[in-house]
Design brief:
about 0% strand; globular
Amino acid sequence: MISPFFSHLLIPFLVAMFLAINMGGSGTGPSFSAAYGANTIRRFKIPGLFGIFVFVGALVAGKRVALTMGRDMLDPDEMTLVVTTIVLLAVALSLFLANLLSVPQSTSQSAVFSLAGAALYLKNFNTHKLFTEIIPIWFLLPLAGFFFMLFICVLYDYFNRRWPHLKEKLGNPKLSRILILLSACYVAFAIGANNVANASGPLAGMVTNELGIDPADEKSFLVIAILTTLLIAPCFAIGSSLLGFRVVKTTGKGITSFGRNGAIAISFVTASLLLLVSVTKGIPTSLVQLNAFAIMALSIHKE
């Protein structure tokens, strides 16, 4: 027999799990496309490995993003069952449609603007957080990824000219396969640190409100955020298994056309920036945009 309290929570939790499944499907491509395209990992192993590193990333490095999504965008006092369900459903349906159409979409930006829309309607809009912290980072971080990628390319060329045997060592098939698989796991870890909170953060804010816990009590909020993460993060692996392979298969060969070293560099740059902004600023950020600017920089350099 389910208690009335938990039966009320069931709907928003199911919606959050549906959102997490869709995020898992869309996040598999940026993380494991290169590894699959380079024949480094078999198809059936991807969801498990992806899910493990997303789960670990969310628990180890996702706390600050959970705080942002759970209480900084919208006062937890306003995070009722209805509001939370509407916010999560809006993001989940938009991402589900994007997955069906194979159109890249930033879950983080959708989640932030959904919360902002609810906050604006409830006349509780935190404009300072959105316009002075989040949106500037959205503009600056992809540019930083672009120039960081260019710097790595120039540095690689310099070392290759200075020590010609370096390219041969880095081109060792066994080492290359290990590095490309590690880079895929690194991206999955960064996705866990940033994207899981898009679903678990609002849930934590809602549960905090329902239990009557003071939102200023950061320790209590983080405990609840960890508990919601334990439920939401494994759904990324389910989404990867159900929805992720089509994207991985489609984009895998395209990414590896840059060469294995190029694919490793793209993964390293995007994951590092995503992880950095998650741990230091707690800002949900688009991995799709970081990937696009890193690929653009590599393409310009190769020309």
